[in-house]
Fold:
Amino acid sequence: MWIIDPDKLRRLQRSTRVNNKTLAECAGIDVTYLSRVRGGKNPSEEVIEALANALNVDREAICVTPDDKDVIRDPRERFLVETFRLLDETGKADLVAHASRLIGRKQNATTG
Structure:
C-alpha cells in the first residue's frame, strides 16, 4: 500500500510547472479531489498510479510506504511536528512544560 506525500506531490508539481487543473485532467480526476489529495487525503492505488503517470514519474516520487517511520498522514499533526523541529532547545522545553501544565489541569478537572 502506498500513501501520497502531499509535500512531495506539491514540490514535484512546482518543479514541473504543472498546475492543479492540468494534473487533474491528465490523471482523470476532478480538480477538487486533487485539492483534497494535496491537503492530505489518501486516494486509491489507481489514482496514485494515474497521478504518477500524469507527472511521468514512478509512484515513489510522490509517495511513501506505510513502513516508513516518518509517515505523518494528518496534515495538522505534520504541521505541529515540523513546527516543533524548528524550535530551539529552550523553545522546545518551554512548549513541553506548558503542555504538561495543560495536561495536569485537564486531569485535575476530571478527577476533582
